[in-house]
Design a protein that fits this description.
The structure is a homodimer.
Chain A lengths: L1 H33 L9 H4 L1 H17 L13 H32 L8 H25 L5 H37 L10 H24 L9 H7 L23 H4 L5 H14 L4
Helix pairs in contact in A: 1-3, 1-7, 3-4, 3-6, 3-7, 4-5, 5-6, 6-7
């Protein structure tokens, strides 16, 4: 069971990475081969950075960032280290997303195209702002040591859900953006005659969608959750480093709720409290 | 706690219904006021049924269909009745989705526009096919009485996840479709000058997105899950009717995992098994 769970996790992770990696590659090939390449000149070649940076940062890196806690080989690392990696990857994705916005606005301004008229731009800007708020709130509440456990417990399910919702909305926004760009750029032959570039970018849209579906599956499986912190802090008082922890943790991978067996001698009331606390703090989504 | 949980659930449900209802209304106002109305003539007025049927059926009714198990006042109803309602609403949504496809294809054929060239059409057709498969599989495995419990336990997390993934993909596809239609239809003034219709449909896109976000929040909260069936079948052997069940169920709304207290005198091994089975059968997502 433990090994089966581990193999299943690995297979899905590899599949997700493959779809994510292919999405990035296809986006780069698209702008280089079909859209004239990349430059930072205020023109359409600067705009080409927009899809490249969004798919690389806001899709692929964000997808990895929300998955890091679930990598079994990181369970021997401290929670603080993993939080730092999670926050760091999300910060990189945020920076790339901001630069991608600059490239789009620069292009519009140079070409005298109005900014912020399309649904893609409205939802896209909204999701970037939400992402920044999520990053800031996550940093203040979960990474800095000042927030009381009760506040963390209260905000954790919201943080997790908003993270997945933002990720899904980014993917929807990418699909809108690709649709827009094909309709703007493909004339003679038009998109409606389905030229090779149309097929190519439609496939890219599918890859991005499947990547999103795989990442969301991985991050919402209760059995693939990182084991609770208390076990770790007791076993490993040395904080931020990443050392082998001897014990049942790695072996128990794939087991549903090992904390249940630890509650063996407790009263029913205590059990309910723990279950409540657990579900609040470690809500899957 | 129980009452707080119930009020929170109700508030979010009312908010979701409001956003869903407004989405349907705005879609109807859009096609009637800005797009010339509705007809079944093979022309653009027939096409107008496409967004109306999709937003009404594939978004709003599907959103309600995936939420029905979580309505506390239905917990006194048999699981079979609720499954039938769940399947029935999804079947209605599927029929409306199919008719919406017919209206789009009819329009394209009349106007000599190529079918199935856009990303919207590719992902849209794929998600309709997935929805049909999900409906068929759900009917065979969960509604008909023939599937063994082990198969149901195995497929339940996949059924739940695919349901939410399909729902999210439908919303992404709606946003692509609205983007396409605005770019096709708005000339003089163009979409890029942000005429009233552009603002109107952008707002519609936001409403659909928020509706999706609220529904997904509601259906993924562990504390709002329908209590397990065994309690019900014991208390209520009369099957498909919907009668008041005296007991702690309604009062316990909002409590995390009441089955925990029932396991008081069991062995640790038994507890692990139940937890495993529970998590497999009742996976939130």
């Amino acid at each position: 069971m433990a090994m089966d769970g581990y193999k299943g996790f690995l297979a899905l992770l590899v599949a997700a990475l493959l779809f994510g990696f292919l999405s990035v590659i296809l986006t780069i090939v698209w702008v280089l081969h079909y859209r004239g390449g990349l430059a930072w000149d205020g023109g359409s070649l600067e705009f080409n950075w927009h899809p490249v940076l969004v798919v690389t940062g806001f899709v692929f890196i964000q997808g990895i960032a929300i998955t890091v806690y679930r990598l079994p080989w990181t369970w021997k690392c401290s929670k603080f280290l993993m939080k730092s990696i999670h926050a760091g990857l999300n910060a990189v994705a945020a920076i790339l997303a901001i630069v991608s916005l600059v490239s789009a606005f620069d292009f519009h301004n140079t070409m005298n195209i109005r900014n912020m008229y399309s649904m893609h731009s409205w939802i896209g800007l909204a999701v970037v702002i939400l992402y920044m708020l999520q990053l800031l709130l996550g940093f203040l509440v979960f990474l800095l040591p000042f927030a009381p456990p009760s506040l963390r417990a209260l905000l954790m399910p919201i943080h997790v859900y908003c993270g997945i919702f933002i990720f899904g909305t980014v993917i929807a926004t990418v699909l809108m953006g690709l649709t827009e760009k094909l309709l703007f750029s493909l004339n003679n032959p038009a998109y409606s005659s389905l030229p090779p570039e149309g097929v190519f970018v439609n496939v890219l849209g599918f890859l991005v969608l499947v990547f999103g579906g795989l990442i969301c599956w991985i991050v919402t499986r209760p059995q693939w959750k990182r084991p609770k912190e208390p076990d770790l802090t007791i076993l490993q008082p040395n904080g931020g480093t990443c050392e082998r922890v001897e014990g049942s943790m790695a072996i128990n991978f794939g087991e549903m709720d090992k904390s249940n067996s630890e509650l063996n001698d407790e009263t029913a009331a205590r059990k309910r409290n723990v279950a409540l606390e657990e579900a609040t703090q470690r809500s899957t989504m």
